[in-house]
Amino acid sequence: MTEKETKPKRKPRAKKKQEEVGVVQPQIPLEELKRIALLSPSIEEVAFAFDISVDAAEREMNRIDVMDALEVGRGGRKLSLKRAQWKAAMAGNTAMLIWLGKQDLGQSDKGTEGEDAIEMATKITVALKEMQRRTAPKEDDKAPDAKKIKKQLSGEESIEQEAA
User: Fold this and answer.
1) Rounded Cα–Cα distance for residues 90 and 98 (Å)
2) How many C-beta atoms surround the C-beta of residue 72 within 10 A?
3) DSSP class of residue 6?
4) pLDDT tens profile 71-106
5) Structural domain includes residue 148
6) Cα–Cα distance, 124 to 127 (Å, whole number)
7) What are phi and psi of 87, to 5 degrees?
8) Core-most of 46, 100, 161, 163, by most CB within 10 Å?
C-alpha cells in the first residue's frame, strides 16, 4: 500500500464535556423553597429564584423531599390567608362573616329544608313592615302634606291665618 492508499484516518472521538459525564443535579435548598412556596410560585419562578433552568426545576419538583417542602410552604400560605380572613371578620367585615359562616358552619343563602318560597316571602314581608314601622317618623315629625304646601305657595293659607 502506498501512502495514498493507506486507511483513512479516523476522526478522534469528541471528548464529552465534564457536565455531560457526571451531570450534577441542582439541589434546591428546602428551607428557602418553603419560604418561596408561601407565594405559590410557578416552575419558571422557582427556576428563576434558584438560578437554575426550567428543566432542572421540573426535575427537582419530582423529588419527594421537594414536594414535601412545597406542601409545607403552601400550607403556611393557607394558614396566613385564613388568619387574615378571620381578622377581617372579627373587625366587622360583614361579607367575610357571611363567607366564613358558609365555609366553616355550612350555612347557606337558601332557606332550611321544607321551607317553601311563600313562607319565606311572608317572613321577609313581615320583617320589612316591622322595620318600616320602627323607622317611620312620628306624627309630629311628619312633613306637611301636599295640599298644605300648595296653599302656602298660592298664598291662601296666609290669608286664612290672618282672618283667624
Assistant:
1) 12
2) 15
3) S
4) 999 999 999 999 999 999 898 888 888 888 888 888
5) no
6) 5
7) -60, -40
8) 46
Domain of residue 32 covers 22-105
Torsion angles phi and psi, residue 23, rounded to 5: -60, 120
Contacts of residue 38, defined as CB under 8 A and 6 or more positions apart, other chains included, come to: 73, 74, 76, 77, 80
In a domain, 95, yes or no: yes
Residue 97 lies in a domain: yes
Q: Which three cell numbers stand for residue 6?
A: 493507506
Task: Tell which residue, 46, 42, 34, has the closest CA to residue 75.
Answer: 34
Q: How far is CA 79 from the centre of its chain?
A: 13
Decide if 93 is inside a domain: yes
Burial class (CB in 10 A: 0-12, 13-18, 19+), 69: buried
Which position has the higher pLDDT, 8 or 119? 119
Task: Give the predicted TM-score (pTM) of the model.
Answer: 0.45
Total of domains in the chain: 1
